[in-house]
Specification:
This protein is mainly beta. The strands form two sheets. Strands 2, 4, 5, 6, 9, 10 and 11 form a seven-stranded mixed β-sheet that branches. A hairpin with a 7-residue loop joins β9 and β10. It is elongated and about 50 Å long.
Length: about 120
């Protein structure tokens, strides 16, 4: 079993900051990619940012320069530092990871349950 548990969401004023965390636990051999997606009401889920084992990152154009994704040294926790938040960043943010539970076993995609981020004055 693998679990992704997010924390750090909440209500913040425009221009403010939040830091999201996501910890992976359970039977894990390796984690290839970890990332954050978001889904606003009435919209499709979209990629926000992702980071590979080697540290390579990808960001949505809408968050470049404002959000920073990082992983801890063990590689099982991913963070999303969100600065200069805008009302359009309001969404449920989901943690995502591509994980191999055992050596030689094909990787699978896992999702957290999501954490609400609301940007409003």
């Amino acid at each position: 079993q693998v679990q992704l548990v997010e924390s750090g969401g909440g209500l913040v004023q425009p221009g403010g900051s939040l830091r999201l965390s996501c910890a992976a636990s359970g039977t894990i051999f390796s984690i290839n990619v970890m990332g954050w997606y978001r889904q606003a009401p009435g919209k499709q889920r979209e990629l926000v940012a992702r980071i590979s084992t080697g540290g390579g990152t990808n960001y949505a154009d809408s968050v470049k320069g404002r959000f920073t994704i990082s992983r801890d040294n063990a590689g099982n926790t991913v963070y999303l530092q969100m600065n200069s938040l805008k009302p359009e960043d309001t969404a449920v943010y989901y943690c995502n990871a591509i994980i191999a539970q055992r050596f030689g076993v094909r990787t699978r995609e896992y999702w957290g349950r999501g954490t609400q981020v609301t940007v409003s004055s």
